[in-house]
Every structure is written in C-alpha cells, then in structure tokens.
Amino acid sequence: MVILVSNDDGIHSPGIQALADTLRTIADVYVIAPDRERSAASHALTLHKPLRLEKFGDNMYSVNGTPTDCINLGINGILNEKPDIVVSGINKGGNLGDDVTYSGTVSAAFEGTLLGVPSFAVSHVAESDFKFETSARIALYLALLIKENSLPPGVLLNVNVPNLDIKDIKGFKITRQGKRIYDENAIVEKVDPRGKKYYWIGGSRLSWEKTEDSDFAAIEEGMVSITPLRLDLTEYGAVKSLRIWESSLNKKIGI
Ligand code: MN
C-alpha cells in the first residue's frame, strides 16, 4: 500500500512525523508537506509563482506552497504511482465545526478526494502536551479500514482526536459538522510604532452550539469524532426551495 502524507503545520511539525512513522509500519509512505506553517491556508492552489521541491530523505519532500499544492504535485507529478490513500495531519489543534472551511489540513484531504484518492484529515484537539501517538494509531486503524472498504466516491473523513492516551479514549463516533459561537470581540485593533492602526484576526473561540451528534459533542465526551464531508457543496434542499426564483428572474430578462 502507498500512502501520501501532508499537513498544514509544515514538514518539521512533530505531528506529521508521528503520523508518517506510524503509517510506515503498514505502507510505503511519501511525505510531501509545506516548508513552513500554512494553517488556515484553506484550499488555495499556487498558480502565480514557481514551486520548488526540497528532498529531506527517502520519499520526504518539502514544497514552498500550500497543502493543496503538496497533494496536487504529489499525485500528478512526483509519485510514480497513484497512492492508495491520502492522510493529512496530524494537525496541532482541532478542526471542528466551521474550522473545516479555513483548514489547510482538511483541504489537503479535499484535494486527494478531488483527484480520486480516498482521503482523510486527522487533527489533535489540544493546545499543548500533544499526545500525537494516539492520533497516529487511530490514523493507522482508519487507513487499514479504508484500504479494505474504500470510501464512498467524493467523500472524505474529517477526524478529530481528543488529547487522551489510547486506553482512555471513550470510543469512536460518526458525527456531523458542528457550529462555533464566535466572540464578537474577535478582532484586535492596535497601533504600530509609527502610529498606524493594524488589526489581528482570531480572538477567542469560546463555545459551540450544543447540537447532538456534532463533532464538538463527541470530543467533549472523550470520543474520536469522524465526520464524513463531501466535495459536492450543493445544498439540495435549497435547489428545490429556490426554484421558484427562476420565473421571477426570467421575467426580468423578458422570458
Ligand atoms: Mn495547522
């Protein structure tokens, strides 16, 4: 089995190293990761500057680009064969609820899925003292399951792991994407040494809506959250309910 590993914390992050070391026990692992931290890079693809590859060892490369660049380069250019699975992580910190749309970690798994490879993202929900070995072990179990059963087409998994030893994990839960409640004072305004204002985004993310079966709820219960996400972002309910707009818009252009 061939596994392509990437992340958004950069190639030197201990999370990606723990992941690659553990997956090497079951697969040929290629690591292609950004040369520096690119958290919150989302699904950005670099089109207007050259990408350079640096080799760090056997099947290990850094790229001066985004997580999406890494997966795209890996699958379309560097690997001699199509990987069986793409694994992104282990992210330092959770990717829960709305984080998914900003996350470079999750986007690397999106890119793998887009290119036809079963993919998942693993994030470790902690701020310090990361027990990455727990997430790495869980990634290994999932890789084996996916190898055996694959994933539905166009579907990737967003996996979040609580900061516990594996023996203390309360179980696995298939969840849905939750919703954060953002702090209204999340923008910090300051003044620089030359008297000019500057802003800093991303104050505290205090709480989340208490929805049943959400990724947040699973983590709070000490469980591993596995949220299936899909590439097709269409809201099918709204395709039906908004269809009545067609005729009034048509009228505007005389149809
Ligand atoms: Mn990150």
Summarize model confidence as the mean pLDDT. Answer: 95
Bound molecules: manganese (II) ion
Number of separate helices: 8
| Spans of at least 5 consecutive residues with low confidence | none
CATH architecture: 3-Layer(aba) Sandwich
| Approximate strand percentage | 25-35%
How many angstroms does the end-to-end distance come to?
Answer: 56 Å
Describe the structure.
The protein has 255 residues and is of the alpha/beta class. A 9-stranded mixed sheet has the order 3-4-2-1-5-6-7-13-8, sandwiched between helices. The chain has a two-stranded antiparallel ribbon with strand order 9-12. Strands 10-11 form a two-stranded antiparallel sheet. Helix content is 29%, strand content 26%. It starts with a strand and ends with a helix. Helix 1 crosses helix 5 and helix 2 (67-78) packs parallel to helix 4 (104-114). The structure holds manganese (II) ion. Manganese (II) ion binds at residues 8-9, 39, 91-92, 105.
